Amino acid sequence: MQLRPEIELVEVSGRSLRIIDAHLITDGPIGHDLPDRGVVLTAGPDGYTARWSRGFVNLPGLARAFVGGATGGALFRLLGLPGAVLGAVIAVGLARTAKDRPTTVPDPTVTVVEDGPDLVLRSADLASLVFAVMELTGATGPVTVSPALQQPSLTDSEAVRLDDVGGLDEVVAQFRDVAVSFRHPEVMARWGATRPQGILLYGPPGTGKTMLARALANEIGGELREIRTPEILDKWVGNSEKNIQRIFADARRLDHPTVLLFDEFDSIISYTGAAFDAAGQMINAVAGIFKQEMNTLIEHNPNVIVVATTNFPDRVDSSLIRSGRFDLKLAVPPPGPAARADILGKLLRRLIARHEVGGFRLFADDVDVPALAAAATGLTGADFKEALRRAQLDKAMHEARQGRPPSPITQADLLAVIAAVRPTA
Questions:
Q1: Is residue 231 within a helix (H) or strand (E), and if so which, with residue range?
Q2: pLDDT single digits (tens) 355-408
Q3: How far apart (Å, rounded) are the C-alpha atoms in residues 333 and 381?
Q4: How far apart are CA 334 and CA 340, in angstroms?
Q5: 369 in helix, strand or coil?
Q6: CA–CA dist 92, 148 (Å, integer)
Q7: How many whole angstroms separate alpha carbon 205 and alpha carbon 378?
Q8: For residue 145, what are the CA distances in angstroms to 33, 38, 89, 282, 328?
């Protein structure tokens, strides 16, 4: 199983380019090493585009270069100016100089046009485009381009996509269909088709139910709004009913795609039936309001889809999750051997892509994913994450104590932590 990305090395006229996982570079932004030069790379159906803002200079970086130290102190004494001010002055001069640079490149396959103060370059060949940008900006390389980098503000769980979900091919396929229906409302309207209004995910803990909801939100280009028990249930009479009404009223006003997630649904709204006390009456009232709201939510706001998860489907009243309210009811079972290998392989690739930089190796070459999956009977995706966390922590603590990096995580290390993890399911 290929864990590390495919790398293509290209060299032209003393300039080097590394293209990582070119087959994963699709429509949209492209990750690269030139943003500090004011360069934005994108991929589209007709090829690749680079926009170079010639007036762009990294002011904070220049300012930092002149703050403190011998150089900053000498300039301060010479001109009587703070280092940050000197950095800004020099940045303006560099920006003016950049605008005077050539606007043509020797490669005939690359077109260059001026757009105000910017230059826009286009080419059907990614390598040719990047080398042309390097020529204009004065970058000597090596430069690396790769599939669009994750936004730094996002955590792993927030940035997850359906491609990151392992071992649940049938469930993921149905989620992809839901995402497509969101992205093509005009087609749905033409055929009078209605996408699912609600999805119920059920199965043991740790099998990826919440992760699927997050992935769906990202696939539709929307947000995840997670509803937790304290947001609904209240000890004061009547407040729980008001809370559920408010949640749906807010959902009806949303003007962008949103996944409304009721995690651990059975702990929020579990059953309806004979009420012998105030708590039972409250549960019945909340369940009744929930059913009424679900009946018409998609008609009032097609931007919202409801996802509910539960570890105990037998505790949820069937009237709450009937078709028309929850049209898809999908089992999320513990993974089998092939699914475990798929999950573990994707987790390892994400860790490698994030942490193996500058020659640092996180995992040794002897890591055998199928063998690890075979030894991990009963483990779920959550268990694998815990096992990898332990392996990473053990190596980090070794370096912190000894003051020198240990060897990468080996197959034996992973087998040891897998054996030590208690299966969640």
A1: helix 229-232
A2: 887 778 999 999 999 999 999 999 999 999 999 999 999 999 999 999 888 999
A3: 11
A4: 9
A5: helix
A6: 30
A7: 12
A8: 7, 15, 32, 57, 40
In sequence order, the β-bridge partners of residue 32 are: 145
Compute φ and ψ for 406, nearest 5 degrees: -80, 180
The helix/strand/coil state of 254 is coil
Structural contact between residues 131 and 12, judged by C-beta atoms closer than 8 angstroms: yes
Is residue 290 within 8 Å of 241, Cβ to Cβ? no
Joined tokens for residue 228:
């937790």
Which has more confidence, 277 or 8? 8
Exposed e or buried b for every residue in 39-55, given b needs 16+ CB within 10 A?
bbbebeeeebbbbbbbe
Helix (H) or strand (E) holding 210: helix 209-219
Q: Helix-strand-coil percent breakdown of the chain, rounded to 5?
A: 45, 15, 35
* Angle of the 278-300 helix axis to the 239-252 helix axis, nearest 10: 10
Q: Helix or strand or coil: residue 271? A: coil
Burial category of 416 from C-beta neighbours within 10 Å (exposed 0-12, middle 13-18, buried 19 and up): middle
Coil, strand or helix at 203? coil
Residue among 377, 355, 391, 387 at smallest CA distance from 425: 377
